[in-house]
Amino acid sequence: MLEKLTFKSDIEIAQSAKMLRIEEIVGQLGIEEDDWEPYGRYKGKLSLDLFQKLQNVEDGKVVLVTAISPTPAGEGKSTVTVGLGQALNRVGKKTIIALREPSLGPSMGIKGGAAGGGYSQVMPMEDINLHFTGDLHAITTANNALAALIDNHIHQGNELNIDPRRIVWKRALDMNDRALRKIVIGLGGPVQGVPREDGFDITVASEVMAIFCLANDLEDLKIRLSKMVVAFDYDNQPITAGHLNAQGALTLLLKDAIRPNIVQTLENTPALVHGGPFANIAHGCNSVIATKLASKLGEMVVTEAGFGADLGAEKFLDIKARYAGIKPSAVVIVATVRALKMHGGLAKEYLKNPDLEALQKGMPNLEKHLETLKEFGVPVVVAINKFVTDTDEEVAFIKEWCDSRGIAAEEADVWAKGGQGGEALAKRVLETIETEENKYKPLYELNVSLQEKIETICKKVYGAGEVQFSPKAVKQMKQFTDFGWDQLPICMAKTQYSFSDDPKKLGRPKNFTITIRELKPSIGAGFIVALTGDVMTMPGLPKVPAANNMDVSEDGKAVGLF
Amino acid sequence: MLEKLTFKSDIEIAQSAKMLRIEEIVGQLGIEEDDWEPYGRYKGKLSLDLFQKLQNVEDGKVVLVTAISPTPAGEGKSTVTVGLGQALNRVGKKTIIALREPSLGPSMGIKGGAAGGGYSQVMPMEDINLHFTGDLHAITTANNALAALIDNHIHQGNELNIDPRRIVWKRALDMNDRALRKIVIGLGGPVQGVPREDGFDITVASEVMAIFCLANDLEDLKIRLSKMVVAFDYDNQPITAGHLNAQGALTLLLKDAIRPNIVQTLENTPALVHGGPFANIAHGCNSVIATKLASKLGEMVVTEAGFGADLGAEKFLDIKARYAGIKPSAVVIVATVRALKMHGGLAKEYLKNPDLEALQKGMPNLEKHLETLKEFGVPVVVAINKFVTDTDEEVAFIKEWCDSRGIAAEEADVWAKGGQGGEALAKRVLETIETEENKYKPLYELNVSLQEKIETICKKVYGAGEVQFSPKAVKQMKQFTDFGWDQLPICMAKTQYSFSDDPKKLGRPKNFTITIRELKPSIGAGFIVALTGDVMTMPGLPKVPAANNMDVSEDGKAVGLF
């Protein structure tokens, strides 16, 4: 019967599932009525007061799900995250899933949701992929309130001496809208403001989103918001949101959004879906508040980070975990036969054919990620996420490859079978946590120079032979050090497809040179972004946008969203 | 004791009030659990399925609250609307209030909420004035999804032959941001889109908002969205959202927002707060869906329209009521001693002094509005909204002036005393509905020419001696007639401060000439906007924005919002 069910689409599975009322999910966690609010029948927001009430509860164990370098073949990281969470509950561990919330804009472009897949999904997927509980709208509003305050300040006399050519704060929309990338604003004469160059980012690229996901509480949120650098003055000194006295209003605009959203999976496992920053110019993890609250509410927390382990896991372990004081108990790295074969040089159209040679050639990608995770000292489990085209030989090959190196590895069939398909993986994760020593520490100390931190990541995590800095980057490192920003961690912006800065170099490239083109201060978030190439912070729509096929059915259901 | 209480601020009164859980409010209306959803503990959204279930219930009576021409002295129209609703419940009529929902953007500029005042407020006012249930964010998103689809269409080959110089669809933000009024987008070379002039309106000025408030149901919403004119092609023919096949996606983005919000007043009277279009370039009334649903749920509905009776009531009676098939039972026109004295020529700083002469001189403003309402054939009651500085003589003067002309008039003290202070007014409204014949009909037939419709409004409602049309307006009237748009009603965009197009002419100007500068098609909303001057559709922030004083208190409450 399960075989037959696997041919249902994600939306069919989701719409035929039996959701519990959100009060049941919340009630099962022992949360009292005063400590949460419903948003519809199947979504809720948890009060931050819970931290105070649960302060003496022991923290649950945090398991991070990451992946090999992503390929167009797909790895299914969110699906494994959801499936593993469901499986841990099945094997007797009270587990909460902590995921990022998706951006609405991209769903207008390309069909597809971002809430897991098959029998490992979070629900209600239609809501989660559209407006959800309004968090992204609140972040958009806060971002744009600050932008309006900047331009108004200049228009009203510019007491802070802001150089309109050096405003780094951009406006934001949760929309794929390429025409807004580069714009000129303030046209139309003296009453319409001061003309200057500007641009819009998609909301998830806003520093407000990064801060939202790194703040420990409302007070920390406000402090971080006040530190955001929005411009430089005519003396080239940084101007912050605090100089504009904007942090109170921005915090007010975020006060409801900052409370974690609670929903459920297809198997009624609680999931906190909250915050979702870019994984290149930001750190790509769900909110610290949600992760920490989940660890107070469950014995186990399963969470994920964006892109592959070289970006997502590195940032989770060097930025998020460090700031939040989270000690991850294990890292699960998702690999698939298909993706490894692509790393081995097989073209996408041949991936459905068994090919042990290509698979073998692709293993060094996994090998390098495993070496990196070892540097962080965390116990690791490889999850082989099953696809229908995988052969037994191919799966066995990966398992044996891992076994022979003393690395825990299990197949996960969570897309087709839900939590049941992840039980072996769940048990292996628990066993690994119990038996392996956890020596987690960040890869670098904060008190070394920006250059040394960047070189450490490039060499140890990516395997670069050399790191080159552009003249601009060299100048910025000196400037940022003068501003006292050199004590911050690094957030690398690099292609997710390769360890190198060339997206075409799959597998495990070696002895390559990586170029740091430019730095970007995210002082409120608390990191310096190091850009290795152009990063697209405002996507466009394709020739035939998914929006063209969207509709609402007569009974009020979403059509064309998935 | 009441005297003492009146010195509390709105926010103090609101925060000390005892709200009922929203399920109690909903339950008292006999709404079953399947037919609404909670948004937090004190807000809800009602299902559109209720229309089907209540189709055999007799419609409640709709009372429209309007006002004399607004002055800086303040009229308190929302306060009277809320107070009258509370009072009608007190005198035994099951009454629902139907209000517009406020825009967030302006609250960043000038301190002050938009949810009534004193002891006649809707709650929770902090939420209502910020993100509320996300309706405005959904409208912003729908507006901007369409904008992105337009520019993407041009970028991807422009099959529809859209002239980029003739795109009339603007982007929108719920923010006071003057720098976005006139912009140039699509800069940066061929991969960033096609450069063109553009601009942002504040969200409430979007035609999506006007449609949101005029649609009868989800299907009507979709049809209206498809009719929106977004541009003209190189042959100067209109291009609609339907040509871009955007109506399905836009409807999907609005499917939750379109369900009316339910909240309560300080006296626990149910209030549907839903939709809030501009009162100049749009019709300035809350949603038809909320008004009609309220009339199915209550014996009485009290609702309001923007600005004075020359704009708000005219549009309610000629546009909204006509499209929705609503027959208003009575119109309450709010007047204050202070505002009438301003219309009589008294400067703002002297309004607190008793001045019967100025009052007498100001009466013609009320007189003209009363004459207009008579043209529509609806029973009218004058509400004298009490201010603490009013003298008994001044109030008595207005009452006697009305009595001598056979016009019902009552004092309302709803700000200081809540529903109790409106009981006399409530009884007078009920008595007027019972005793006066209701001969409501719109002012003009739809099948006359655009010019004749505009002239009818200007002469009969404003009292203009002559109507001049600019050459552009003349050309547009011909063009719009060729497109078959001449059968639509007119939505006048005129200053709210004067019957004329000169905001300085208070009182009752006569024999003036009004100039129609330009027309604007709002084909989805279903009206032609006639502009008599420049209308600001994107406000700016003041030198010291209210945002500078906003904050969140340690216990999570809004600071500086009111």
TrEMBL record, chains A, B:
CDD domains: FTHFS. Gene3D superfamilies: Domain 2, N(10)-formyltetrahydrofolate synthetase, Formyltetrahydrofolate synthetase, domain 3, P-loop containing nucleotide triphosphate hydrolases. Pathway: One-carbon metabolism; tetrahydrofolate interconversion. It catalyses: (6S)-5,6,7,8-tetrahydrofolate + formate + ATP = (6R)-10-formyltetrahydrofolate + ADP + phosphate. Keywords: ATP-binding, Ligase, Nucleotide-binding, One-carbon metabolism. PROSITE patterns: FTHFS_1, FTHFS_2. ATP binds at T71, P72, A73, G74, E75, G76, K77, S78. InterPro entries: Formate_THF_ligase, Formate_THF_ligase_CS, P-loop_NTPase. The keyword Ligase applies. It is an enzyme of class 6 (ligase). Its EC number is 6.3.4.3. GO terms for molecular function: formate-tetrahydrofolate ligase activity. Belongs to the formate--tetrahydrofolate ligase family. This is Formate--tetrahydrofolate ligase. The lineage of its organism: Bacteria, Bacillati, Bacillota, Bacilli, Bacillales. The gene is fhs.
